[in-house]
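Usage example:
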Amino acid sequence: MNIIVCIKQVPDVTEVKWDENGSLIRTGLPSIINPNDKHALEAALALKDVHGGTITVISMGPPQVEESLREALGMGCDRAILLTDRKFGGADCWATAYTLGLAIRKIGSFDMVITGVEAMDGNTAQVGPEIADFLKLPLCSYALDIRCEGDKVFVLQNMGDMVRELEAPLPCLITAEKELNEPRVAPMDMLMEAYAKEIEIWGMDVLDGDPANFGLKGSPTRLRKVFSPKRIKGKVEILEGDPAESARKLVEKFKEHNFI
Amino acid sequence: MTDTKDFSDYKGVWVFIEQQEGNLTRTTLSLEMLGEGRKLADKLGAPLTAFLLGHNVGKLAEELILYGADIVLLADHPALAEYRTGHYTDIICKEALERKPDVLLVGASPVGRDLAPRISFRLHTGCTADCTLLDIDEEKKILVSTRPAFGGNVMATILCPDHRPQMSTVRPGVMDMPVKDTARKGEVVTLNLSIDEAADPVKVLSVKKREHSGINIREAERVVCVGMGAGDTQTFARLEELAKELDAQVGGTRPVVEACLITHDCQIGQTGKTIRPELYLAVGVSGTVQHTTGMSEAKTIVAINKDAKAEIFNFAHYGIVGDASKIVPALIDQIRKAKAAR
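Running the assembly step on the lines above writes:
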């Protein structure tokens, strides 16, 4: 079973700090493999453990993404491809899916593509389904469980307040939820080996695409502005005193507002 | 940004209507989008179309007109009974190519987040995910979509100037419900469908309801929200008692859900619910932006936190700086005293 996994390197946005003016400090955040994508990697590795085959991991981004690809190799992936090119810069979901889709097409034969449901920095959950549409692959999103039998795959799909059981033919595209599995940690010896492996670098000239569809130029959406969410700073009335005293003051406020 | 393309033949606002077994899905999301779609359509001076797919859903179509739709595109077929990505995408894309909508809104529900990207890729257009605010640029007459970005730490305003339809998915609970107008008139257009079963090879074998707390936190008028600062077993138990005294429902932040203290359907924040209760009492909640995007519209906000610098105090009307494990019992005590004194 040959599987392609798409991963994204993201800043760890759970580590975000603000400066004293309430502005976001963006620099200095650690770069990690997007958490959902680790579950995608683990799903592929678990299938390989049972069915054999090879796993190719691909990622689009600046050269530093190599580090995340090495971690994926250390987890047990067989081949790693970095899609990097200045012309890929500024890509939105559409252009990202286009670029990844071309790369998957170029890799050629595969039984399954797995991506994470969404990236923790963008939270759009769009790239996986978009790749599926580009490559005309059946889509099984929000996977809680994946089971292969012959040329079919059975997926438990997390639809919020419902869980659906899907059956799809191979090849198909699956997006991985975090409940799907517990990602393995790359053992030190495998990580060391991963550093000796080659990471293939593909730019725009390698992919057989329309130059107008890559990067910022190929992105239908345009960012107009970024701003901090509104806050009503300074309006809070702090109710002072020991627990009993402050609680009593709050109850007075509750009474004023008819909550009691 | 260029304005070189001519989109004058693209008209109207479309809203994808989500239904389950002939009923609008558990949330009022589709109606919220109709209400918002109506406002956008009026600003554009264009009609509002509701796109309804399913099986035996004709009676819903009339209902959608009463909530603001001018036209209902009705795709009714046995193959559409359950939501299926392939068929739904095929039908919507075919109609969109023929009828050329200017704007297409889809709910940011599990179904919508699966469907919208497939449509947007196929139509080669942009889709802004999980929007919390939509508007029309007065001058350019284009859609202006605002969404949380960077893990919810900032808000981003996004346009789709050179592609049509301009697509956005809309977060549940952030748009106002429209008022039902029983006198409203509109047109139901039943589509002639020829569905090739083989065109969508993904089969839905079963559909099961998930474990559910039974609480609709979005409809609760009063909410006591638990953060990790109140997540120890003892304080949590007292919080449930406090909620009972205040006739409130218990919600929580994402870490509290991940610690399995409450179920996901009671999670408040970016990856949970957006709520606008009368009273919101945050206990041991630090107030990350991921959380506050889900509650900042509450009418009266009270925060209890031992860290005087906690971000949540920037949103609160009243605050108590102190340890939840001590404040909560004192508060229960004082409420009981106040009630007894009446």
